[in-house]
């Protein structure tokens, strides 16, 4: 085999798998979005873009996109700074770093479906511990049945779940922070804030980009917590695109409609990631390489 | 599928023309998708049968019985295993005329229809399936459920009159019968007689009319206690009872027009919306949370399925009573029936005969008694409650179960919208009610929007 063809031959298995597991399913979704499928009648009708137009104009699609964006807005901007704060606190400890790292990572390591069921009980009106503690002070009861509070309640659980993951990302990033630089800054009389802002934060650029991108993707794809805690309710108020495409494809057996929602989710993820790369990711990664 | 002849030389390309190549690709993709979603009935059946031993020939069986049992076992798909695994296995544990393999599919009412749809599309359907009443219609309308009339006529040992006539109604279409029930539930009003007494109401007299219900709910509502409660979920029997009792319907008789936004339907929603506004109604999409709250004494009157009677009796420590759902003044209560029934899917003649034998076993008074005892559902087989070796004594000793069984008479089946999108239509209706009762949306807007959306689905 020539030196020219060898790299292609070595890449071929990985590329083949990529095509089989990513490219072809994506193309399949695009094709299925053009058909109306009736499983009981084994009927497949080509409807072209009509299905896309109907779905995009419908209230379900609007609710799905709005809730997905709102849910992501309630998680990423909260969990990333909070994760950074916790990571800095753990990093500053002289003893017990491993213990606290494990404590914060436990929620992420646990089974989300089981944890979501526990949170659901905690939010139950009357008997739930959260309801009992906060209803007197806030007047809010029946969080998961509330048109106003159901989505924030689910987002709270998502933040709790993701926090440990973000903490670990930042702690890993902090291993790249030069201790010599920090010590030099301290000797030069730099305070805690200046040491963070001028030494630690620039070095955390790549970790921050990774944390933001991964938590964004995970939030846009959230399903388990919503399925267990609210089942999309009340009246689709917590129904994100992932939940809706599952319900449409599996529960309603509307494969074409689910394919349309899948494409919408794919585009939303692409849009979010491209937006992040163009606005801050390159700059932050650049600061990390200084 | 519609195939219109076209001449490419003279006819401009129509927007809805099917591109053949694209169709072939899509069919292949759909088949792949279905195969991925499909339950793998055969493997699941084998695994399940191996695990529970339901298909194993009992020791000491006679040669005649063994001969009858030769051939493929009858596959029976069922759902809600938490409730039905034990009684169904008990029902097939004895000497049955055919081998029966029980196949668990999913956890709830909505799961099995989805699996069946994919199984039907991939050609590997179970012979029989135990489905919730609220999901059977799509299979009958689509022509995939098999009629049972010839099997019943040819079987001199079988008496259809053993079933409560109301329980057979969901399976009758165009003069033919497509299913047999083995579990029933009816919408009922549960009330906490202790709270009635504490509020100065007669604990022996539940509200019978809508105005009595409103007054009682108002009197019972107190700090920490909600007067009345209703769960909002698809296929809700309480809405069925309230609608039927007020002469309202979801569609007109010919099922050409959605009608729940008409005046009788609006009156039902208004009744509940007024109570919600007055703070005397707790409405929730979470039926389990409501049941637990009622059991803790936080709800005085709770409208839900009689299938919950057993659980409530176990969980509560107050004086629990059961009554019909209140009706409008000058009318009578028309209950809404739900339950579980077997539909037959196999088309092969000899397999149908074997499936029929299995169906008789699984809907027998003995099997229905097993189900009623284990699950809290009522038996559709009237012999279950008249035979002393079955449940005659236990019903006589339990006034609440006796009251629940009396609710069956005159009830009508829970409504399922026509077509393959019936589940989605039910969800849209449920969401409209949630928007009114929990979201404060005007009744006219919510019902009109839902009516329009469901109309489009039915049209499709």
Describe it for me?
The complex is a heterodimer of chains A (290) and B (460). A two-stranded antiparallel ribbon of chain A has the order 1-2. With 290 residues, chain A is mostly helical. Chain A starts with 5 loop residues before the first helix and ends with a helix. Chain A contains 13 helices and 2 strands. Helix content of chain A is 75%, strand content 3%. In chain A, strand 1 and strand 2 form a beta hairpin. By secondary structure, chain B is an alpha/beta fold. Chain B is built from 21 helices and 12 strands. Chain B has helices at residues 20-37, 41-52, 63-68, 81-91, 111-122, 137-141, 149-153, 165-168, 193-198, 210-220, 237-245, 263-278, 287-295, 309-315, 349-362, 365-375, 383-386, 392-397, 399-406, 422-437, 443-459, and strands spanning 74-78, 100-104, 128-132, 172-173, 176-177, 179-192, 226-231, 281-284, 299-305, 320-323, 336-344, 412-413. In chain B, the strands form 2 sheets. In chain B, strands 1, 2, 3, 6, 7, 8, 9, 10, 11 and 12 form a 10-stranded mixed beta sheet that branches. In chain B, strands 4-5 form a two-stranded antiparallel sheet. The relative contact order of chain B is 0.15. At the A-B interface, helix 1, strand 1, strand 2 and helix 12 of A face helix 1, helix 5, helix 13 and helix 20 of B.
Largest sheet of chain A, in brief, is:
2 strands, antiparallel
- Distinct helical segment count of chain A: 13
Percent of sequence in beta strands of chain A: under 5%
Give, in spatial order, the strands making up the sheet with the most strands of chain A.
1-2
Distance between the termini of chain A: 41 Å
Average predicted confidence as pLDDT of chain A: 91
Element order of chain A: H for helix, E for strand:
HEEHHHHHHHHHHHH
Q: Biggest interface pair, residues each?
A: A-B, 43 and 51 residues
The SS-based structural class of chain B is alpha/beta
- Count of extended strands of chain A: 2
Which class do the helix and strand fractions of chain A yield?
mainly alpha
Shape of chain A: flat
Q: How big is the Rg of chain A?
A: 23 Å
What would you call the quaternary organization? heterodimer
- What is the molecular shape of chain B? globular
Mean pLDDT of chain B comes to 85
Gyration radius over CA of chain B = 24 Å
- Major sheet of chain B: size, sense and barrel closure? 10 strands, mixed
């Amino acid at each position: 085999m020539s030196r020219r063809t060898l790299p292609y031959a070595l890449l071929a298995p990985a590329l083949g798998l990529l095509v089989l597991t990513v490219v072809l399913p994506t193309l399949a979704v695009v094709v299925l979005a053009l058909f109306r499928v009736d499983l009981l009648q084994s009927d497949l009708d080509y409807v072209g873009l009509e299905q896309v137009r109907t779905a995009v104009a419908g209230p379900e699609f609007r609710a799905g996109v709005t809730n997905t964006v709102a849910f992501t807005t309630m998680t990423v901007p909260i969990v990333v700074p909070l994760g950074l704060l916790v990571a800095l606190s753990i990093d500053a400890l002289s003893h017990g770093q491993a213990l606290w790292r494990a404590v914060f990572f436990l929620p992420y390591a646990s089974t989300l479906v089981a944890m979501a069921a526990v949170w659901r009980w905690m939010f139950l009106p009357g008997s739930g511990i959260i309801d009992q503690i906060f209803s007197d002070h806030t007047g809010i009861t029946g969080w998961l049945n509330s048109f106003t509070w159901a989505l924030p309640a689910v987002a709270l659980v998502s933040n709790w779940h993701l926090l440990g993951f973000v903490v670990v990302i930042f702690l890993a990033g902090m291993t790249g922070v030069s201790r010599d630089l920090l010590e030099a800054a301290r000797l030069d009389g730099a305070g805690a804030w200046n040491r963070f802002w001028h030494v630690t934060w620039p070095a955390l650029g790549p970790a921050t980009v990774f944390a933001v991108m991964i938590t964004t993707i995970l939030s846009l794809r959230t399903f388990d917590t919503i399925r267990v805690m609210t089942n999309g309710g009340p009246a689709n108020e917590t129904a994100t695109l992932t939940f809706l495409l599952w319900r449409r494809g599996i529960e309603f057996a509307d494969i074409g409609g689910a394919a349309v929602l899948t494409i919408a989710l794919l585009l939303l993820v692409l849009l979010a990631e491209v937006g992040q790369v163009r606005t801050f990711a390159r700059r932050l990664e650049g600061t990390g390489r200084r | 599928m519609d195939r219109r002849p076209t001449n490419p030389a003279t006819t401009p390309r129509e927007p809805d023309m099917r591109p053949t190549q694209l169709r072939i690709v899509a069919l292949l993709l759909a088949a792949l998708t279905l195969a991925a979603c499909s339950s793998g009935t055969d493997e699941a059946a084998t695994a399940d049968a191996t695990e529970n031993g339901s298909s194993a020939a009992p020791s000491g069986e006679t040669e005649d019985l063994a001969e009858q049992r030769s051939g493929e076992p009858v596959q029976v798909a069922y759902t809600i295993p938490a409730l039905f695994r034990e009684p169904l296995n008990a029902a097939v544990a004895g000497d049955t005329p055919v081998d029966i393999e029980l196949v668990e599919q999913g956890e709830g009412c909505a799961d099995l229809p989805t699996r069946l749809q994919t199984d039907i599309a991939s050609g590997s359907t179970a012979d029989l399936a135990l489905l919730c009443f609220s999901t059977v219609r799509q299979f009958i309308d689509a022509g995939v459920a098999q009629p049972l009339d010839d099997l019943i006529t040819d079987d001199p040992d079988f008496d259809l009159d053993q079933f409560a006539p109301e329980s057979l109604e969901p399976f009758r279409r165009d003069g033919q019968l497509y299913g047999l029930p083995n579990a029933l539930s009816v919408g009922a009003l549960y009330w906490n007689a202790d709270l009635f007494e504490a509020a100065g109401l007669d604990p022996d007299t539940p509200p019978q009319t809508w105005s009595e219900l409103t007054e009682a709910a108002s009197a019972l509502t107190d700090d920490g206690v909600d007067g009345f409660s209703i769960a909002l979920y698809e296929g809700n029997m309480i809405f069925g009872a309230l609608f039927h009792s007020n002469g309202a319907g979801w569609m007109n008789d010919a099922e050409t027009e959605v009608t729940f936004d008409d005046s009788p339907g609006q009156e039902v929603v208004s009744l509940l919306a007024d109570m919600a506004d007055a703070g005397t109604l707790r409405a929730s999409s979470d039926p389990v949370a409501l049941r637990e709250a009622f059991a803790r004494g936080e709800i005085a009157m709770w409208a839900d399925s009689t299938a919950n009677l057993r659980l409530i009796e176990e969980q509560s420590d107050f004086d629990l009573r059961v009554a019909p759902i209140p009706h409008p003044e000058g009318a009578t209560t028309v209950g809404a029936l739900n339950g579980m029934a077997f539909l037959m899917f196999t088309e092969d003649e000899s397999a149908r005969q074997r499936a029929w034998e299995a169906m008789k076993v699984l809907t027998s008074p003995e099997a229905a008694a097993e189900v009623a005892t284990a699950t809290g559902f009522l038996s559709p087989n009237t012999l279950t409650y008249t035979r002393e070796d079955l449940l005659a004594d236990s019903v006589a000793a339990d006034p609440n179960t006796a009251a629940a069984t009396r609710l069956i008479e005159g009830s009508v089946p829970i409504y399922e919208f026509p077509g393959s999108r019936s589940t989605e239509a039910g969800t849209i209706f449920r969401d409209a009610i949630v928007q009114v009762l929990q979201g404060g949306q005007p009744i006219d807007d919510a019902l009109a929007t839902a009516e329009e959306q469901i109309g489009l689905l039915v049209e499709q």
